[in-house]
Every structure is written in C-alpha cells, then in structure tokens.
Amino acid sequence: MTKSELRYAHHPNDVKRYTTQELREHFLIQNLFSNDEINLTYSMYDRFIVGGAFPVSKDLKLETIDDLKAENFLDRRELGVINVGGTGVVEVDGKEFQLAHKEALYVGKGTKNVVFKKSGGDQPVFYLNSAPAHKEYPTKKVGKEDAEVVHLGDEKYANKRILNKLIVNSIVETCQLQMGMTELVEGNVWNTMPPHTHARRMEAYFYFDLEEGQTISHFMGQPDETRHIFMKNHQAVLSPEWSIHAGAGTSNYTFIWGMAGENLDYGDMDKVDPGNLQ
Questions:
Q1: Most buried of the four, 7, 63, 114, 175, by CB within 10 Å?
Q2: Considering the entire predicted model, what is its pTM?
Q3: What's 241's domain CATH number?
Q4: In which band, very low, low, confident or very high, does the pLDDT at 182 lie, cut at 50, 70 and 90?
C-alpha cells in the first residue's frame, strides 16, 4: 500500500509567525515507516518527495499517487533509495538489486515497476527521495565503497563527521536529485556547522542511528530569524531554499541529505558565520 500527503511551500515572513506546532505540521515528517506500507510526503519545494518503504510480511510496490497525475510513479521522476536497515532487495522492472545497510540505489525516469522486498530474515528500512526528471538515466547501485568520502569538522567544535556522497553527479548521472549520508563521530553532535543556505536548491534531512531516548534539535529559518524543531530517530524535515539546515543531538547520529533544484553543484552554498546567527 502506498500512502501520501501534500505539503505546500511557505514564505519566510509567514514562517516567522508560526507556533511550534505549526512549524512541526508544515516541515517535520514523523511517520515514514509503517508495517507493509510506503509513506510519501509530496512537497511543493521543488516538487520533492520524501518517503519510506517498510516491507515486513509482503513485498511493496511503489504505486503512483493522485498528485502526480501519471500512470506510473516514475513516468516523469527519478528516485533515490538508501537502506538504513538490514539487507533488502529493490526490484526494478524485473531486475533485483540487493542493498545492504547504508547502500544506495538510483532509479531513473521511465521505470515502470519498483518493488521493495525483504531478504532472508533481515528487516530492511528503505528511505526514499524523488524529484522531477527530464531525461532517462540508467539505474545504478552505489555501495559505501563507491561513495566519495570527505572528513569534516573538528572535535574542538563538536562537529567531527564523515560525509559520504552517494547519489551525486560525480558518481551517478541524475537530472537533479542528489543524496548523501553524514555520520557524526562518537562524542560529536553538530552537523552542517558552520551553516549555509543555497537559494538554488531545497533540501530534506533524515535522521537515524540516534540512541533510544535521545533527541535532535534541527535548526531552520533565515540566518537572522532561526527556529528549531526537536526530532526523534527515523524522522525527516523539509528545508526550504531560503533556510539554513543544521542540527545538534544529545548524542551522535547519522543523517541523510537529499537535494533538488537549479543545479548539481554540491559546493554551491552561501555560508553563514555562526557568530551572525540570530
């Protein structure tokens, strides 16, 4: 079963007046993984879709949704999948791709059938991002050994982390979708600090590997009008083009970033001095 909801875009001046509950309703995605369901959130920020597939007792086919007005989900879209659980299988037009923990798969425009499956006794947890596409590119699996790995941060500033670029234009040909995974080193809690905006692309963050009972405060908003949203494990948050996107946890964790928009340049960002945040 595939379920979906629609989220509208927001002007930053409106967001300044939102209550905590309104911020959470508009930007936080809480229920990504339900037994034997695919849950999708269709955002008007670059028409980006955030979702989760959780096959427990049966295979799950990615079905089209009413908002797409398309016969198949990927008629005009591309898809990125990262498995954050046990080993699982993604079947793409009859061809099976086995994804281990933290491995990724890019699925191109024009694909007719995508099915998410268990593999043996493991329980996969498939995190999904999708963006509109103008051209067909081939499906490609990206293992952690294929990633571009960058070491960032400093323990002095509690932001030492390992950046894994997975579905990026230097590894996989895509139309606009870009995805990667950042792992915080134990004892470090800050991600994406110093912060930045990039008006040419929106972004979504998905947090996982967070210890039970711990929390993450995700910071968003214009640099001089920041807001925060407290988040739990396996939750995602939408980040508009005009917003910073940074977080701090009460323990270390891992997060997946997904982007879509004007360009594919990972380094395209407007950096903000932490001393200028308000």
A1: 114
A2: 0.96
A3: 2.60.120.10
A4: very high
